[in-house]
Structures are given as structure tokens and as C-alpha cells.
Design brief:
It is a single chain. The protein is of the alpha/beta class and 517 residues long. It has two domains: 12-172 and 237-361, no CATH class; 431-510, STAS domain (Transcription Regulator spoIIAA, 2-Layer Sandwich), CATH 3.30.750. The chain contains 21 helices and six strands. The protein has helices spanning 12-36, 41-58, 73-83, 86-105, 117-139, 162-169, 173-188, 192-195, 205-220, 241-248, 260-287, 297-313, 323-331, 338-352, 355-358, 363-377, 380-388, 391-406, 409-430, 459-468, 487-502; strands at 66-68, 319-321, 433-440, 443-454, 474-485, 506-510. The strands form two sheets. A four-stranded mixed beta sheet has the order 3-4-5-6. The protein has a two-stranded antiparallel ribbon with strand order 1-2. 47% of the residues are buried.
């Protein structure tokens, strides 16, 4: 099936509903990540708008959606505290964007190709499990931890798992009912009878969830044991139109350009944001169910760089391409980048025009939407498939998942990558030589054939064979099928040639003939 790349507006019937879903997923995340970063709430929403509209317009990723990323929250908070002000931090954010553009021009986007599929799949599964687990307290109406805090060690001192006990102790019955109804709507809306109905299938399920959630919250208001407190609703800062916006927005303080710490944090943000973006681009392309697009990664780095310059110039926190939003876009049927752009406009409209209405949305309803997103990213069938692909695929995969669950995305991916490299070295070592031993008329023969790439890991195995070689035996080293032999191995072969003379071993090396000159 071929995507219409030239007429992006021809897919509006798919992109508009998808943008609504992404909007409802992104809204609490923008606010939560800003809060987790120690930044003004409005800065998260500004980042969401820029990530959707600016990055969406420049990027050539059809399905990727950008916005504030949980992976940067700790770095942002540390930078703000160290620099002493949010305005100083914004300067670092602008410089980080400049660095990302330079990365793109230097064609650093190819780094994404270094990561094996097992690690990328592990990253998707890990994100899915984290999202799923993080929503459980919100489904019970326990909202002490902000939406968007995806770290195992939370900003409130709790952990992902300790929150379960708190949720069971301090649950809200009204929120639980809203969550159950929300999940029921989302599941039922996927049924064939609903999707085959021309009227019902055009109604985005998350939009229906939000409407029903608001209605139930109003219905429960006069009922004491079902009432949902104000802390269980979305909390968007109230901006009285464009004229009032400047009173809430903080701008960069350019005097901090001379501060070396600003440049340091700019470099850190640029590196981390670029790596997260490249990983998410790879994962998003992998998730595409129909088209299997390949996003130009260098162009994506430039788009992200421009986005961070714009976002931080107008008071937003740094952005990356984000797998949570991107996967929600894909699972909601988005076809082109217009869904990402539309979701940015929806956030802008929400902030300027309907903040009062959005503040009536129960967090439990949005938690239902995110729970389903998390499940789709971490389906049990994925574990089964990776297990069947063998331990070389499964071990890096599961290591990535587990480390991500207890630490963060980048460390999980890093550990998975290292394990993959170790497995490659082990496999290369195991297949680097073939050994044949024979005994013909009382004469012992040892033939060692070196294959492919012979690394220093083969030294121990070779040494063992040489030590067992008997006196007056015959040893043949065949290097004709070796593409590369490590200098240490070559040195060992030369040393054995000398030792063979003392043990009266007939030593021979089979080489490819020299090319005629």
C-alpha cells in the first residue's frame, strides 16, 4: 500500500481523528513533564505546540510526534537548579537546538542504524510496561505522582511499585468508575460491529472517553462518596487570550551566554535529545503497520534543532520525538505528518480558548487512554516472538526492558546494546575456527582452519590446541578463508612456529596464492 506523499490533505479523514487521540495523550504529559522538570506548567504546553506544528512541518517523519520528553526531565531540573533560573536554562535550550542542527548537517543521524532490532523492540516494550504501570494509581484515583513522571524513583520519593500500595489505600471510587467505563469504551470501540458502522467509526474513542468522563464527574459531584476532588482533574494554566500570554511566558536571559555552565548543559541536552530522537525514529518506523517508512534521520535532527530553538526562545522546555505520542498516532490510524501538526494546533487552542473546559477532564479518563497505549506497546505476543527468535535476540531484548523499568530509557538501551555487542563477539569467536584431529599410520595430524574474522578472543582456544600438540606431530594452520586476523593471533602463530622446531613438529601455514604482478 503506497502512502500519498504529495497530497497530505487527502488523508484528513484518518489524520484528524488520530490528532485528537494524540492531543489527549500529549496534554497530561506536557503538563506532567514540565512539573517533573521543575519548569513552569505553561512551558510544557509551549513545547507541545512547537513539537507538533514546527517540528511536524519540517520533519519528514510521517508518523512521528514530538514534544517534551520524560527522558530529559532530570537533566532539565538539574540545569535549572544549577543555573539559578529558568530564563538562564532557556539559553542552554536554544544553544542545544543549534548543536542539533550542526549534528544533522554533519550527518550524525546514521548513528541510529547502529542499534539492533532486539534493543529497539525492547525499548518499545519497556516504554509500554512503564506507561501501563504508571497509569494504575491514576486508574484508582490516586494522583499524587504527576502524569509524565516515567522514572522508577519518582519526584515525590515513591517508586513505581510503592505507588500501588498507596493507590489501594487512598483510592477514589468515582475515579475508579470513570476509569473502568473509559477502558470499556476503548475496548468496545475496537470491535468489528463498531468499526463497520459508518457513523460510530468516525467518532474517536478517546474523545468519547473524555466526554463521558466529564459527564460522569459532573453526575458524581452531588454524591458524597463518588465526588472527585479538584486534584483529580487536568490542571491547565488559565490564559486570558494572547494579550495575557506574555504575562505567563518566560523568555531567555541572553546575558547568560557568557556562562560556561550554559554551554555545558547545551551540549548535554543536545546529545541526549538527539539520541532519544534517533531511537524513537527507528522505533516509530518499525511500528508503522502498513508502509515501513524510513525517516531521513539527518533531516529529523535538523527539525528537532529548529524546534528546540523556537520552543526555548518563547519559553518552552526542550523537545524530542516521543514514542508515547508517536505510537498513539500510529495505533489511532494516523497516515501523514498532518496528524502531528493538528495535535499541536489543538494544544494551542486548548490553552488560549478552552482551558476551563479541559480542566473538567478527570485524570482517570486520560489514564484509561494511556493504559491502552501502554498495552499495545508491550503485548505478551512480543515476548513470545522474541523468545522464539533465540537467546541472541531475547537476552538483549529482556535486558533492555528490565533496565529501563528500574532506571531510564537511555541506560536500558545502552545495556541492551552492550549485551548485543558481547553476543556478537562470542558468536564470532565460536565460529572463527574449525579444528580437526586425525591419526594416520601413527602420525598425529592437527588441522586448524581460521574463518571469517579472528579476534583476540581466539587466543585462549589456540593456545590450548598448541599446548596439546604432540612431539613429532603435524600441525596445519589454514588461513585461506579468514577475512581478518588480529595482530595478537598473528604473533601467536609466529611464536608457535619457533616452538614447533624445538618439539620437532611439522608446522605448515596454508595461504592464498599471491596475486600475479
Amino acid at each position: 500500500m503506497k502512502r500519498n506523499r504529495h497530497g497530505v490533505f487527502s488523508n484528513l479523514k484518518f489524520d484528524l481523528p488520530a490528532s485528537v487521540v494524540v492531543f489527549f495523550v500529549a496534554l497530561p504529559l506536557c503538563l506532567g513533564i514540565a512539573l517533573a522538570s521543575g519548569a513552569p506548567l505553561l512551558s510544557g504546553l509551549i513545547a507541545g505546540v512547537v513539537g507538533g506544528i514546527v517540528v511536524g512541518a519540517i520533519s519528514k517523519s510521517s508518523l512521528g510526534v514530538s514534544g517534551p520528553a520524560a527522558g530529559l526531565a532530570t537533566i532539565v531540573m538539574g540545569a535549572i537548579l544549577d543555573l539559578g533560573s529558568f530564563e538562564a536554562f532557556l539559553v542552554a535550550g536554544v544553544l542545544a537546538g543549534v548543536f542539533q542542527i550542526v549534528f544533522g548537517l554533519l550527518r550524525a543521524g546514521k548513528l541510529a542504524m547502529l542499534f539492533p532490532s532486539s534493543v529497539i523492540t525492547g525499548m518499545l516494550t519497556g516504554i509500554g510496561i512503564i506507561i501501563f504501570l504508571k497509569q494504575i494509581p491514576h486508574l484508582f484515583g490516586y494522583d499524587a505522582d504527576v502524569e509524565g513522571d516515567l522514572a522508577f524513583m519518582q519526584v515525590d520519593g515513591e517508586t513505581t511499585f510503592s505507588e500501588f500500595g498507596n493507590a489501594f489505600k487512598f483510592f477514589n471510587l468515582g475515579a475508579i468508575i470513570i476509569a473502568v467505563v473509559s477502558l470499556a469504551i476503548l475496548i468496545i470501540w475496537q470491535a468489528k460491529k463498531i468499526q463497520s458502522n459508518k457513523v460510530l467509526r468516525v467518532i474517536p474513542a478517546p474523545l468519547l472517553v473524555v466526554v463521558v468522563g466529564i459527564g460522569l464527574a459532573l453526575l458524581f459531584e452531588p454524591i458524597a462518596f463518588l465526588t472527585i476532588g479538584s486534584e483529580h482533574f487536568v490542571n491547565i494554566p488559565i490564559v486570558e487570550g494572547l494579550s495575557d500570554l506574555q504575562n505567563h511566558v518566560k523568555l531567555p536571559s541572553w546575558g547568560y551566554l557568557a556562562d560556561s555552565r550554559v554551554w555545558f548543559y547545551a551540549g548535554v541536552i543536545a546529545l541526549v535529545a538527539s539520541l532519544e530522537t534517533l531511537l524513537c525514529v527507528e522505533a516509530t518506523d518499525k511500528l508503522d503497520p502498513h508502509y515501513k517508512n524510513t525517516t531521513p534521520t539527518n533531516r529529523e535532527l535538523i527539525a528537532q534543532g529548529v524546534g528546540n530553538i523556537v520552543a526555548c526562545c518563547i519559553g518552552g522546555i526542550p523537545i524530542t520525538q516521543v514514542i508515547v505520542r508517536s505510537s498513539a498516532n500510529i495505533h489511532s490510524g494516523g497516515k501523514t505528518k498532518m496528524s502531528a501538526i493538528f495535535h499541536g494546533f489543538l494544544i494551542l487552542i486548548a490553552v488560549l480558548i478552552i482551558p476551563f473546559l479541559l480542566n473538567k477532564i478527570p485524570i482517570a479518563a486520560l489514564a484509561g487512554v494511556l493504559t491502552l497505549v501502554g498495552y499495545k506497546l508491550a503485548k505478551p505476543s512480543t515476548f513470545v516472538r522474541m523468545w522464539k527468535e533465540g537467546w541472541v535476540q531475547f537476552v538483549p531484548y529482556i535486558a533492555t526492558v528490565v533496565v529501563m523499568l528500574f532506571t531510564d530509557l537511555l541506560l536500558g538501551v545502552g545495556i541492551g546494546f552492550v549485551i548485543s555487542v558481547v553476543f556478537i563477539l562470542i558468536k564470532s569467536h565460536l565460529s572463527s575456527m574449525e579444528i580437526k584431529k586425525t591419526n594416520v599410520e601413527g602420525e598425529h595430524f592437527l588441522q586448524i582452519q581460521l574463518l571469517n574474522n579472528v579476534t583476540f578472543l581466539s587466543k585462549a582456544k589456540l593456545k590450548g590446541q598448541f599446548e596439546m600438540a604432540q612431539e613429532k606431530s603435524r600441525v596445519i594452520i589454514d588461513i585461506r578463508r579468514a577475512n581478518y586476523i588480529h595482530p595478537d593471533v598473528i604473533s601467536m602463530l609466529e611464536d608457535f612456529e619457533v616452538a614447533a622446531l624445538h618439539k620437532k613438529i611439522k608446522y605448515e601455514v596454508l595461504r592464498n596464492p599471491e596475486p600475479a604482478k
